[in-house]
Amino acid sequence: MERRTFNKLLGASLTTLAAPAIIRPAFAADPLKVGFIYVGPVEDFGWTHQHDLARKDLEAELGDKIKTTYVESVKEGADAERVIAELANKGHGLIYTTSFGFMNPTLKVAKRFPKVKFEHATGYKRAENVATYNIRFYEGRYIQGVIAGKMSKSGIVGYIGSVPIPEVIMGMNAFILGMHSVNPKGRIKAVFINSWYDPGKEADAAKALIDQGADLMAQHTDSTAPLQVAEQRGIQGFGQATDMIKAAPKAQLTSSTDHWLPYYIERTKAVIDGTWKSQDTWGGLASGMLKMADYTNMPDDVAALAKQTEADIASGKIVIFKGPIKDQSGAVKVADGSTLDDASIAGMNWLAEGVDGNLPK
Amino acid sequence: MWLALEPRGQRSAFWTYGSPVLALLLTVVTAAIIFAALGQDPAKALWTFLVEPLTSASGLPELFVKAAPLILIGVGLSIGFRANVWNIGAEGQFTLGAIFGGWVALRVGEGSGWWVFPAMLLASILGGMIWAAIPALLKTRFNANEILTSLMLTYVAQLLLLYLVTGPWKDPEGYGFPQTAMFGDAATAPILIAETRLHLGVFVAFVAALLGWLILSKSLLGFQLRVLGSAPRAARFAGFSESGLIWLSLLLGGGLAGLAGLFEVAGPIGQLTPSISPGYGFTAIIVAFLGRLHPLGVVLAGLVLALSYLGGEAAQIDLGLPNAVTGIFQGILLFYLLGCDVLILYRLRFGGKQLGGKSLRGASR
Description:
The structure holds two protein chains of two kinds.
Chain A: H1 2-22, E1 32-37, H2 47-62, E2 66-71, H3 78-89, E3 94-97, H4 103-112, E4 117-121, E5 130-135, H5 137-151, E6 156-161, H6 166-182, E7 187-192, H7 199-211, E8 216-219, H8 225-233, E9 236-241, E10 252-258, H9 261-273, E11 280-283, E12 290-292, H10 300-315, E13 325-326, E14 332-334, H11 342-346, E15 355-356
Parallel strand pairs in A: 1-2, 1-3, 3-4, 4-5, 5-11, 6-7, 6-8, 7-15, 8-9, 9-10
Antiparallel strand pairs in A: 10-12, 13-14
Helix pairs in contact in A: 2-9, 3-4, 5-6, 5-10, 7-8
Chain B: E1 3-7, H1 13-37, H2 42-50, H3 59-82, H4 90-108, H5 116-142, H6 146-166, H7 200-218, H8 220-230, H9 232-237, H10 242-269, H11 280-290, H12 295-319, H13 324-340, H14 342-345, E2 346-350, H15 357-361
Antiparallel strand pairs in B: 1-2
């Protein structure tokens, strides 16, 4: 009884409120409203920061053809769906959802708004109006590994992982493959801190790894804390997502930096032109979505080798996941002469030989 | 001229209800000044923040969906807090409720049956209660402080969830991402209004608040809880079982938090992931105090806090203001609420004989 009255009451007030929202004519001259939702604050100087830089540049590039909006620090969970739906409700024709945890919320909202185009970063589910995109971060990891093979005296690299998902696992494996290409005895000591951004935890992990003999620091987390610890302890390391040279002028060797702009321009234009189609994009060095920061604080011959490696990956001369590759137990994962296809890379759930660390079972 | 606080000797009936209203007014005025300083039209910004989120078709349902877990947890906590039982670990009990209920959902998979969802409800209440029973046992047996034990169990609960979704419960078709499979239809909370996310949990939250109010103000049990909270010695002399009331407070709070956890994962989220709660268990503590530890007040407080989240998002989308606006608004509101409460026990007197010190001491609660 009570539930019914409650329903009725809500229903009545909803119908009156809904009327103006539904009647919303669109004019051709209107700029395309492009929405972004971020998992972190725009000042995280890592993942979200790079997306927001691209958003600003996109607005500068396309001028009055578009109008962009963003919502930052959206929690993955029940909140995400509300925010995405709100953007769609408020007339955004294209919405970029920039974290893996937004995948199911994006698909749910996409079903309710078939005319709105959605772009989800790092996920694997697509729909008629949902495309996915990501960067081949592992290409940069391979170059870092090559540099590490040359620069590490102890042959041990401390590697701070965020969450044990394929993206992070393939990065560790690419790193060790790169390292082994110049120093077959090189090892990674890996830890997972189960967070993408936690300066305190990242710094603690860095200190612990250095105490265990690591003399280089690599990270798949977003803060500058590990590099700063490296700088204080007088060792070197690699930045993540963004050029962190200012945080660690002596310690940073290079950094794999994310460049979403070329993709955002291409896809936003496609919506304006009416040529947008759902697809999966996985761009790397060749497409300009991944760039290496300047090779600094290293001898010239190492920098030259790094540049050559970068060029060879972009041209396809170096294929990173090419057999023979063994896993931690010594079992052959990629047979001699064969290479992994994108689907196998995207689902990678084993650590390569030379990585000390555990994946959850 | 001195401005002095003078104890009233007894609680002012007027300011008991007037203080939150005054606080809300002061918050709005302060927020308007801040909006103006940010270069916004204050009236338009306030409208965007406080009213606009409710004007779309999905506005009210979304407000209730956001408020439901806060209300469910807040009601349970407020009853315990009345009895001086400080359960700070609702976040962990919420998580255990989600885990227990989620276990049923995952076992059932795509199967169906009328019993599936009720079984999940019971499992989640049990899960929350088990997690709250640990501090209850430690408190009644060893006199261990429940603030510490319940809080620390929160982190244990989160690690347990993380272990399950990255390990044994991981979705085999999920490309190794930390998440379970999506729950089947039978294991999803019924939607009360089609085309919205308004689920059964919202209704349950309102019923819980009503029941909480009845228990607390109309039953002998409620009387015992209140006496234990305000005069523990009197409660002992009256022969009330202190440990019984501690157990009851924690189990009630834990059960409701567990239920809230289930409605989140079986409602808007639809699966278990490492991030099922944006801190509902902690925010609900604020909600409980904002609502004067009164179950019906908790409903209002839950709605106000939920609105501040929705308003913060609207301010970002429509005005391009940063997300920090939400936090600032909540902070100002709490600040004024606590500040205005002084008026319940004290009156302001100009030209008083002395400042602070002595006169303040007489009127501790």
